[in-house]
Design goal:
Strand content: 5-15%
Radius of gyration: 24 Å
CATH topology of the largest domain: 30s Ribosomal Protein S19, Chain A
CATH class of the largest domain: Alpha Beta
Low-confidence stretches: none
Number of domains: 2
CATH superfamily of the largest domain: Ribosomal protein S19/S15
Strand order of the largest sheet: 1-2-3
Distance between the termini: 69 Å
Largest sheet: 3 strands, mixed
Amino acid sequence: MSRSLKKGPYVDEKLLQKVAGTKPGSVTIKTWARRSAIAPEFVGFTFGVHNGKSHIDVLVTEDMVGHRLGEFSPTKKFTRHGGKMQKELEQKQKEAEIAAAQAAKSVTDTKEKKQ
């Protein structure tokens, strides 16, 4: 649910104080305030956003203004779908790439021998 427009975006006060006291790109600002909205003053700063286990570095760009810091620090690790079938498909794809690379190499070798 979005925040009321008359209240404005929520930005943690401590976070604003940390940003005011440093230069953009000089240090990583560690924070646990995942719910804080990214303000235009944050552009260029690197934040270490806590994901529950560790701090993930997030470099703020202009496109991120208005979003929340927590959106760029995932809390769950994706371990891919599939299983045995997925592994077989990946192995076949890898073998096809190796075969294509060997074919390309043999073509370049034959060209070099002709010259």
